[in-house]
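User: I'm designing a mutation panel for NADH dehydrogenase-like complex subunit K and want to avoid disrupting the core. Could you give me a predicted structure to guide residue selection? Please restate the sequence first so the numbering is unambiguous.

Assistant: Good idea. Sequence first, for numbering, then the predicted structure tokens:
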Amino acid sequence: MVLETVPAEYYLVLSAAVFCIGLFGILTRRNALMFLMSVELLLNAANINLVVFAFYWGEVTGQVFVLFTMALAAAEVAIGIGIILVLHRNFDSVDVTEAATLRW
């Protein structure tokens, strides 16, 4: 397998880099779509960790958690797109700093 030739530390460094990119995107962007993409990066970094540790310990528990995380990410995107559509309909922008309240 591929994981046998590459040390687990490389995957952990990759996961940390992806997590930092996602965290940077959440902290610096004002666009709601960029928020969603950054949260997806955070979840993918966690998935990389879960798969690597599941392989390292020889169990499938981490891979099962990855499936649950993917389902959570799909639900998050569906709800997030609905919120973005409401933002765009009410404020003609997806900038989250313009929307203080979602009143009519």
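For picking mutation sites, this is relevant: The domain at 7-91 is CATH 1.10.287.3510 (Helix Hairpins). The chain has one domain: 7-91.
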